[in-house]
Write a structure and sequence with these properties.
Elements lengths: L7 H4 L5 H24 L6 H6 L28 E10 L3 H16 L9 E2 L11 E4 L4 E4 L3 H15 L4 E12 L6 E7 L6 H15 L7 H19 L4 H10 L17 E7 L5 H6 L11 E4 L1 E6 L2 E6 L3 E2 L5 E2 L2
Antiparallel strand pairs: 1-3, 1-4, 1-9, 2-7, 5-6, 5-8, 6-7, 9-10, 11-12
């Protein structure tokens, strides 16, 4: 059988094995580049996604500090009680987060004793960035039937205030102890915003927790200030007893804690680290040599969150309510 002699033009149309392989490799390379480009422009995850994984699995039903780097539970676990916290959540910029984490790492590495080790609140154990919390309530406890009414009451209180989102400037670092004096926190202290928004939100939160029989936040600091002022007045006039002075101090607060015109700006903070023991003099002195421009950091306040158990409800500022007192989404 004679071989068929194809012309040059016909033979050139038939891909050779090497050409097919090269084209396939080139096509896969283009697809990889396109895939990489599309991955880099994926939108960020919504805030609600982070709320789904804000809590870790419970490792024990009783308080075991060895499971939590020595931390002790502020309130013992009781079946039927729901731990609750009202706060503002803030994610620092990647640059600020990295710089702040370097400060925490530097402070921790300078300590030889385990109880003076500074634990970061900026990173998880796996290195993932964590949000920082600005507390608007103490750790409180609700009963099961109080959960929904609490969220509804707080949401309506914030909605009626018609407070727009705002920014708060940072003024520096400081060490602050918790109420039980079991931990000390390295915190970012905040300036007073122009709209006095933090004091307004604190007052609304304190009003709400008091309705449900829980203690308001920062009343201890206010009580101490009032007691000091009463003692000064008593020393100056020599006329009032200690009991009378205490009553006068208590009268400076209504049943819902600090009134809306009380300025608690010096109390607001964002914790970035913690330690079990009181910070040493060396730790305190190192705060003055961080070299960081804290005034360049602005904290965005646009949402208040209420965490009850593992469920988190986000309450957006400037949310509207209708004439029937029902919540309308932003």
């Amino acid at each position: 059988m004679a071989l068929v002699d194809y012309s040059d033009s016909e033979s050139s149309d038939i891909p050779q094995p090497d050409q097919t392989h090269n084209r396939s490799q080139s096509s896969r390379g283009i697809k990889r580049k396109q895939s990489s480009a599309s991955d880099s422009i994926l939108p960020p995850l919504p805030d609600s996604f982070h709320d789904l994984y804000a809590s870790t699995a419970r490792a024990s039903n009783h308080d075991d500090p060895t499971l939590h780097a020595g931390r002790q539970r502020a309130m013992p676990h009781v079946e039927g009680n729901w731990p609750t916290h009202v706060y503002v959540e803030w994610f620092p910029s990647p640059e600020s987060s990295s710089r702040l984490n370097d400060i925490v790492t530097s402070l921790s590495s300078a300590q030889s004793l385990q109880e003076h080790r500074v634990h970061s609140l900026l990173r998880s154990e796996l290195g993932a960035e964590l949000p920082l919390h600005l507390s608007l309530s103490r750790p409180i406890v609700l009963l099961a039937h109080q959960r929904q009414p609490f969220v509804g009451t707080l949401t309506r209180a914030i909605s009626k205030q018609s407070l727009s989102p705002f920014e708060v400037a940072v003024r520096g670092l400081e060490w602050v102890a918790n109420y039980e004096m079991t931990r000390w926190f390295l915190v970012l202290k905040l300036e007073k915003p122009p709209n006095n928004g933090l004091n307004k939100l604190l007052h609304l939160s304190n009003q709400t927790v008091t309705v449900f029989g829980q203690p308001p936040l920062y009343t201890d600091a206010l009580q101490s200030t009032a007691d000091g002022q009463s003692r000064k007045r008593q020393a100056g006039t020599g006329g009032r007893s200690k009991k009378t002075a205490g009553a006068a101090a208590s009268s400076s607060m209504n049943h819902s804690g600090p009134s809306s015109d009380m300025d608690m700006s010096s109390s607001f903070h964002l914790s970035i680290g913690w330690t079990l023991a009181a910070p040493t003099q060396g730790l305190r002195e190192r705060l003055n040599s961080t070299g960081m421009n804290f005034q360049a950091i602005n904290v965005d306040i646009n949402t208040v969150k209420a965490k009850i158990g593992n469920a988190i409800t986000a309450i957006w500022l400037a949310t509207k309510i209708d004439t029937a007192n029902k919540i309308i989404e932003k």
